[in-house]
């Protein structure tokens, strides 16, 4: 599998579409593959903001750009089911655990709980 440097953040990893048929299983598998995983759409301003937040903290997230995947819409619908709302991206997983979308990430950051989560997952060493 080839990894591509994704602008200034982490790595964009092309998804293999034939691996798993159930989108929720695929999300779970991908989410547990790295310390920080972001499901994103390349043209989404909130996705860009959350990627910048993590990079600004010294974290290199693995980013899955759903608009670059043939099954991206299916995965996006699965993420919407996980979140229980209509906003599907960005969706952040830390240590394989669902954190949520931008509002949950920012609330964790402001309350001071984001850094300990990142340290526990091995995404930050400071």
Automatic annotation (TrEMBL):
Subcellular location field: Cytoplasm
Taxonomic superkingdom: Eukaryota
Gene3D superfamilies found in the cross-reference section: Glutaredoxin (3.40.30.10)
CDD domains: GRX_GRXh_1_2_like
UniProt entry tagged with the keyword Signal: no
Keywords: Cytoplasm, Redox-active center
Domain annotation Glutaredoxin: ranges: 36-99
InterPro entries tied to this protein: GlrX-like_pln_2, Glutaredoxin, Thioredoxin-like_sf
Residue ranges of the TM segments: none
Family of the protein in this entry: Belongs to the glutaredoxin family. CC-type subfamily.
UniProt-recorded name of the protein: Glutaredoxin domain-containing protein
Lineage: Eukaryota, Viridiplantae, Streptophyta, Embryophyta, Tracheophyta
